[in-house]
Amino acid sequence: MSSDSHRPQAGSQQAGPHPAGSHHLEAHHEAAGDPSRRECAHDQRLRLSVLQLLHENSRRSPETIADMLGVPHEVVARLIRQLEEEKVILRYSAVINWDKVDANRVTAVIDVRVTPQREFGFDAIAERIYRFPEVRSVSLVSGTYDLQVVVEGRNLKQVAQFVSEKLSTIEHVTATTTHFLLKTYKADGVIFDDQEGDQRLVVTP
Amino acid sequence: MSKLERLSPVVRGLPPSGIRRFFDLASQMKDVISLGVGEPDFVTPWRVREAAVYALERGFTSYTSNYGLPALREAIAEYLEGFDLHYDPAHEILVTLGGSESIDLALRTLVCPGDEVLIPEPTYVSYRPCAILAGATPVAVPTTVEDEFRLAPDRLRAAITPRTKALVLCYPNNPTGAILTEEDVQAIARIVMEHDLFVVSDEIYAELTYGRRHVSIAAVPGMKERTIVINGMSKAFAMTGWRIGYCAAPRDLIEEMVKIHQYTIMCAPSMGQVAAVEALRHGQADKDRMVEKYDQRRRLIVKGLNDIGLRCHEPRGAFYAFPDIRSTGLSSEEFAERLLAYGVAVVPGNVFGAAGEGFVRCSYATSAEQIERALERMARFVQAVRPV
């Protein structure tokens, strides 16, 4: 079963004062094979698990995350500090359905075609674009266009103005196509208006 | 003679489910966090639901073979290979209405009036009544927290009489989370073969094990011929409402079981069978994602229960924690009933057999946030009732 590969081997741990407690780390030390390589793979798995749990809910405490992963609290606290320092974790934020509270907010996805520059490639142009505060995200993409830019404004006109006056006029930008977002159904893995509640009976065998 | 007196004494003699009474109590309460639910909190993966929608659109609405769709039986046979189980999809697999129907078919097929059926307890609530309805006498074999609720070979041996016909195994276990090790299974198989018993092995939670692979007793040499393996889609693929389960057994047993099935059920729902094919063929990633979540919640709840002073062994399978509540001085039922007032529903352990007294079942098939909230409430409750 593939899920076993990223879950710890429980080994022969006994129930007692630390049931399911720290076996995540302990069990791995008992495992056969090159210890340092396994250690690395284990650390990497742990990093990814911590990030995944924070991504799901950034208000989870390091203690809760540690308990969920079966590792000591201080390991997770240290790891999170490290991830923040390494700028792996850049910010903690909420997923918000703005449509519900702010009818005036306008978001546009803009496809931008550019001529890459010698030495700098696309990076320099991307930077010229992402420095504008109204730009929410910039990605280099494959396909007909080169950069995908997400822009937010107070109204259509403001966004249109930004595109025609700022974006299109940047040197090496050869074409733009603007798509205004009309409704968001799902973002960052979250369904915005999910009708599927918990339908289960309160107690079942 | 009153109307009731004219009804079947066997049916009238069945005790009503202990869960039922508790369900009624819990249903009246507002703002209850339920740790009492015996099914996944996930909705069936979308790819599976979508497959069923397409099946309906294509008019897939008629009976299937009594045995089940050939494509599904093939998918099941391949899937069971993963547990070292080898069954011929044409003759040795029967698709049923959930695992539940398979339990009923298995017991009705195996036992004669007066036979004894050994049921390690605490365990899921259906085996005992199904055995009684089949005319057999259920015999409880207690398992203990000291053995982490695994069936101890000497206890099994002690329960066997000349009238013993079959042994029911439910591992990974509801409600204790116990799983059997390779050695447990070998030891049990030896005793079973020595006494020429049948085994009904309900492996519905086989996918939900943490750190260790499920071992099926039917994989032990010499056991396949005397074992009916029961499994289904409900727990592994979050498909409880679809009622698609199956049993795998040697051809001669399946041929007898299918007779009851064809006269009472005909076949499992056709669109559900199509969905099950999709789940078995392409649902592994969805299943793995759910198992990972269960494992995280499992650690959270076991740690939390121990922290608030309810000693809890490590459940290694299913999605239940089964803490020892004897330190509170309350019976299982008192504990569960009084905890309701604190806004948490758990299931009293005695519902699963006398050996479950002193324990309660806490399902962790609910979000980590709900579990944390429930633990806070339980901590307040335990603080309030703990004798000084």
TrEMBL record, chain B:
InterPro entries: Aminotransferase_I/II_large, AspAT/PAT-like, NHTrfase_class1_PyrdxlP-BS, PyrdxlP-dep_Trfase, PyrdxlP-dep_Trfase_major, PyrdxlP-dep_Trfase_small
EC number of the protein: 2.6.1.-
Location of the Aminotransferase class I/classII large domain: 30-377
Highest taxon of the lineage: Bacteria
Enzyme class: transferase
Gene Ontology BP annotations: amino acid metabolic process
Coiled coil: none
Keywords (A to Z) from UniProt: Aminotransferase, Pyridoxal phosphate, Transferase
GO molecular function, one term: transaminase activity
Necessary cofactors: pyridoxal 5'-phosphate
PANTHER family: ASPARTATE AMINOTRANSFERASE, ASPARTATE AMINOTRANSFERASE-RELATED
UniProt family annotation: Belongs to the class-I pyridoxal-phosphate-dependent aminotransferase family.
Entry protein name: Aminotransferase
Species whose genome carries this gene: Alicyclobacillus cellulosilyticus
